[in-house]
Structure formats: structure tokens, C-alpha cells
Amino acid sequence: MSNSLHTVTPVVLSSTMSSRVPGCSVYLKMENQQLSGSFKLRGIGYHAQQAVERGATHLVMASGGNAGLALSCAAKIMAVPCTVVVPVTTAAPILHSLELDGARVI
Question: Per the record, what are the reactions this protein catalyses (predicted)?
Fold first, then answer.
């Protein structure tokens, strides 16, 4: 399972931001195109993958946002169950996305 879970995302020139910084070209790394919607899949996916390779059979994390989404995405890709413990203030769309990925939400 040594393949990375994240995707290679493009770097694009931002003409608008570049025009505001004299003498510089500003580029944006489009990490929103990761399967989980943020850059957090890179790190969390790596550590989740390492845990599974060492024998973990269930992944658990406390998060109310992108970190939990990254874990649930990684777990779904690896077909490993996961639980995400969320604060009561977690937004409904986040809860829905976690559940769509198959995470147990507490």
C-alpha cells in the first residue's frame, strides 16, 4: 500500500495577486482539488497509511473540519473503518461529508 493517497495538483499563476506585488509572480497551489478538498490529505493520509501498514484496523481522530475529512477520505480509499469525534459546533455539511465517506461520527 505504498502508493500515496493524495493527487498531484496544479500550480497556477494568479495575475490578480501578481499585479499587487510589484516585481513578483504569485502562483497558487490548487490543493482544493485533493479528494478531501484540502491539503490535509497529504499529511493525514500519509500517517493513516503508515498506521495501516503497521497493522491498524481502525482509524480515530478528533476534528471538526478538514482534518477529519482527510482521515475519512483516506480510510475510505484504504477500505479501513474510521471514527471522527467532532465538537457539537461542527457544521452540518462537514458531518454529511464525513458520513458519506463512511466515517462513524461521534
Answer: L-serine = pyruvate + NH4(+)
The one-character DSSP state at 78 is H
Q: Which three cell numbers stand for residue 78?
A: 484504504
- What's the CA gap between 24 and 74, in Å, rounded? 36
Model confidence pLDDT, tens digit, residues 48-89: 999 999 999 999 999 989 999 999 999 999 999 999 999 999
Which cell numbers in the block locate residue 100?
Answer: 458519506
pLDDT single digits (tens) 14-45: 999 999 999 999 999 999 999 898 999 999 99
- The full set of domains in the chain, from first to last, is 11-105 (3.40.50.1100)
**Cβ-contact 70, 82 below 8 angstroms:** no
Angle, CA of 35, 91 and 65, to the nearest 5°: 45
